[in-house]
């Protein structure tokens, strides 16, 4: 069980802070929901309390682990020459895990491919979503705003090769 103020990651959406726990009636059922406020875009999500284990909700990484994420972004990209559809499925599977280190690999590799050869429309959208998820967790982990973290991450991505 999570508490008010806990910073958590909701796979495929990013990191946020539990703002409240509320009872809501949805489809005729009264259930408790975590109300998660996302730092980017001021989005709020309702997550059923009794279903968090199945959804992969987890605590954010600590400051020390942010350095591990940055180290991944600084590494040379893994070149994947398979067709875009196969790459897309592989990257989507990594993103669904909710693991920030897998997410960092996706961001780094897609940013490299975009720089070198360009991306399909689907992969461009995937890169944007993956960046947003990565930035949201790093921002909450380091107590920085999203714009600062975005600039920091973009700086590393501009140097990949």
Tag the structure with descriptive keywords.
alpha+beta; 161 residues; 5-stranded antiparallel β-sheet; globular
Question: Can you describe what's shown?
Answer:
This protein is 50% helix and 20% strand. The chain is built from 6 helices and 5 strands; from the N terminus they run ββββαβααααα. Strands 4-3-2-1-5 form a 5-stranded antiparallel β-sheet. β2 (14-26) and β3 form a beta hairpin. α3 (84-96) runs parallel beside α5 (121-142) and α4 (100-116) crosses α5 (121-142). The mean pLDDT is 91.
Proportion of helical residues:
40-55%
Unreliable sequence segments: none
Strand order of the largest sheet: 4-3-2-1-5
What is the string of SSEs from the N terminus onward? EEEEHEHHHHH
The tally of beta strands, per DSSP, is 5
Which SSEs are present, and which pair or pack?
Blueprint: E1 7-10, E2 14-26, E3 29-37, E4 44-48, H1 52-55, E5 58-59, H2 63-74, H3 84-96, H4 100-116, H5 121-142, H6 146-157
Helix pairs in contact: 2-4, 3-5, 4-5, 5-6
Entry summary:
The protein is α+β, with helices and mostly antiparallel strands and 161 residues long. The protein has helices at 52-55, 63-74, 84-96, 100-116, 121-142, 146-157; strands spanning 7-10, 14-26, 29-37, 44-48, 58-59. Helix 2 packs parallel to helix 4 and helix 5 crosses helix 6 (146-157).
